[in-house]
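User: Could you check the structure of this?
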Amino acid sequence: MWSYARPVSALHIPRILVRPPAPRDVLSWEPLGWRDAPDFAWLDREHARFRELLAGCGAEVVVATGEPGNLDSIYVYDPALITPWGAILLRPGKETRRGEPAALAPDLEAAGVPILARLEAPALAEGGDTVWLDEATLLVGRTYRTNDAGIEALRAALPGVELLAFDLPHLGGPDEVLHLRSLLSPLRDGLVVAHRPLLPVRLVELLEARGIEVVGVPEEEVESMGPNVLSLGPELALALDGSPRTRRRLARAGIEVLVYEGAEISRKGDGGPTCLTLPVDFPAARSS
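Assistant: Sure, the predicted structure tokens are below.
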């Protein structure tokens, strides 16, 4: 059994799995619900620069194959949940993404991450609805993409973990992506960035009870993915270019924020830096 002592967000994550786009992927943009057709040359260039930025921060970038012909495959955080014991292959609520978990499994195993469990029907869950608040606490959003059966399947697969589920708002409805990570991202021990007005009351109360400081994202910067911030260490984070007020607030909280250009890889597909990455080394998994 692993030792649960340190917050996940306070530790450097050395290996980050990504899935670069392929030319045939762009043909799937419309059925996948992207906002517009991506230009592959720019898409590829932005993703390459994104990987270079991660590597420049000291991360070991693990390149995955993913599901061929599926543009959503670049959002590698959604098909799997990394735990101290291995990966749980999820079952996306978005039907066009149902093949991604199985396609990602060989990449995870090649990276030395064992497959702990696989979600089966009727369970639905997407990684974007999961946030490790610390090594013993998993937050899960109940959304149009993650259902009650999915939450119970995760709870059964993680008997030693405190799994706390929260209903998220309807907002734009089932055709809009509102994951838990659309609203909140952990940064380090005792610090998260979030748009508090859309958080469930019980989640706000939990953060307050645990003494966790919230860097607030203003309403006008939710659409520009202000809450979707990738922690790369206790004082370093990566964000989509934009959301200047949020970045200033993060700087005052002691977080240096690096930005990337994501007109193609992020804005057109509604996926920020946490969506584009899957850290594959759970911090506690250094000893058993």
